[in-house]
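Appendix B. Extra example for self-study. Work through it before the problem class; the solution is given directly after the inputs so you can check yourself.
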Amino acid sequence: MSFLREMMENLLSKPCTILYPVEKVPIPEAFRGQVRINDEKCIGCSRCSLVCPSVCITMVADAKEIEFKGKKLVRKKRPEVKLFSCVRCGLCAQYCPSDGIVMENVLSCSGTDCEVVVK
Amino acid sequence: MDAPLLAIYILIFPGFLFLAAFAFFLEFLDRKITARMQHRVGPPFVQPFADYIKTLAKEVIDLKGVDRKALDAAPLLAMAAVMTAFLYVPIIGRSPLAFQGDLAVVLYLLTLPTIILFIIGWLSRNIFATMGGVRAVTQMFIYEVPFFLALITPAIMVGSWSISDIVTWQQHNLWFAVLQPIGFIVALIGLQAKLERTPFDIPEAETEIVAGPWTELTGRRLALMHLALDMAMVTGCALVAAVFLGGPLTPWTITPDWFAGIVGFLLFLVKTLLVLLILSSITVASGRIRIDQLNDMGWKYLASAALIQIGIVLMMNYLWVGA
Amino acid sequence: MPEVHIPIGPQHPALKEPVNFKVVVEGEKIVSLDLDISYTHRGIEKAAEQRDFIRVVPLLARVCGICSHSHTTAFVKGIEEAMKIEVPARAQYIRTIVAEMERMHSHLLWLGVAAHEIGFNTLFMWTWRDREIIQDMLEEMTGNRVVYGINEVGGVRRDLTPALISRSFEHLTKLEDRLAKYVDMVISDETLKMRFCGVGKLTREEALKYGTVGPTARASGVDYDVRRDEPYLAYAEVPWKVVTDTNGDVYGRTLVRIGEMQESLKIVRYCLENLPGGLISVPAPRTAPAAEILSRIEAPRGELVQFIRTNNTDKVERLDIRTPTLANWTSVAVSLVNQNIADIPVIVAAIDPCMSCTSRITVMNRKDTKTCVMTWDELRKHGRNLYQKEWRA
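Solution. Structure tokens for the complete assembly:
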């Protein structure tokens, strides 16, 4: 009996589907989405590329003066992330000492260029 | 009825073209109601027609050693059988082709799609298709007896073998759904089994034998066979609506003939949709049963209920129609 | 009646992942069957030997999508035992919460899949709609809907804020309502009982003899649950019950899984209410001393065993994973004989097969027990040979 009642209730109410792309799925704040590199904060320590499980971060030469913990230093390298190899585990953001690489709550799953990098 | 009007009746309305359009409409309604009951959105209005056009355009894949011409002809045969059966069902009043015995003709023609499914399964040279075909015929043996009996009891009470006579008789008396409730329920369950819908979609069990007899149907064969099954759904619902729910005639006569036709057509639509709503609810609320469980249930409960119904009707005839 | 050979798999609508049943039937009854697994062998155990303890945890999380947290929990528990570090209580509670929520969503997924296997698509749609409640909770807590990645050696990576905890309580109340409705539906629906009762019966002796684990064994009356008999994480401090049943058929397994879902909900609620304060992780040393650890936990599908050998370096020397589905396949092969073809998908679905979890081994050559290293081309040639000469016959 509870079955029939649920069926009739569902028939008369709005479906539970989110009508993508007209409606968007709500993404919580804590979602691990796309990687983003903050150029003005990265100190070039390479920790992110050492910790990445899928080896998708390469360090490229890029000199810049960065202020880190009140001191000025000159970084020598900066990371580049191959987006289609990244598994969004968040270890790079966790081990970065200066917020140079962060995870944003943005969905980024599809594209046409498989060599695209995030700089 | 003179020749041009008869041609329009057969070919356009309410004949073949209307049958195809109504088949698409009923399939859309069935899928939409099922989806809404499951809390989903469901397909848009033109979905069945779009599916039909898309499937027509796809490539037909033939296995080695398969009889191509027979497989091409089989869906057309099924469609022809169902279309002919639809001509005898009253839609806007009595059918102009009615004759004594058209009930038996309609019931016979409606069994042809299942036999054709078995033939297709056999011809396909695929183990899953053969098993599905065997299951389809086994299921047909189980439910045909109660279904026929349930549809014949109104004919016994009316004393005529024509569907149009049954409909006219209900115009001046009660509907058969009220007079013979057991027969009505048996007919509905039999119709669900004939149309191979859950809980009786055993021949087409997707998770057990891939797609049963439909496995090797592709392209235009699949489109035409699917349309034939949809038309069978229309004819089955219209038949049950005519025999048990009074069909398109009202108890009081309506004077301008064309107005009577319009009212009759609207009544036909409403009653057929009501039967479809009941069938869809049964589909949504249950899972598939096994063929041996169907065997148990069919012979123990359905056939006995139909026999009890016949017994009641014969006794009523004897007591009231008089010795 | 002549015997017919039917291939169920490797591709079949009943199977969500590839496995090969070569079934011999007479009419509709199964006479005998042969089972082939290992279609999804990916070389994870070898890959784990080449990654240090930080980088191997995301790899192990991707062994299976539905039991991802179980694999990482078993591994970090073993490594912490080898390193002899004490994980803070708050981290244990958070791990327990995520583990029980994983169990709930895995069992709800199973209920939908079992309903779909008998053609009962309505229950499938409804259970998967309610599974979204759990997925949303997990997304807020851990950052992802599957493959949570919340474990690390030494603790957990994320904390639960009070706002998140109060939102979770609201979700839990809604979920409790829905679970009570599903219990009601499963007990009272006729076609479900017709398809599930008496199908795939496994007696207690058979279950013990063939080494079944998890809800499959508990439904046959085997009262064994790793969470109670060898407690880990926070299970010793939380009041909860083991759910068993004596039916031994698919219906019994359904009842056991629904009962486990309700128990999991109570565990999650208790842990959220009594979350201890403190750190969420301690810093772990880089290398692990030499040790051989057998780490066992109760994954949603049964007992998951991981054998870890460390050798004073920052990588494991050998990792061997015995998943619960691998232990349950024998019971499927045994209980399918003398059933109908129509029962194959039901019985296979009743052990909750997770093929990604299953295959850690591939039998290369049955006659000769040497091992060898193959290049990619040699492996492909070997696979083609095997298929055309041995399996087609």
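Self-check: Helices of chain A lie at 2-11, 47-51, 91-95. If your reasoning did not lead you there, revisit section 3.
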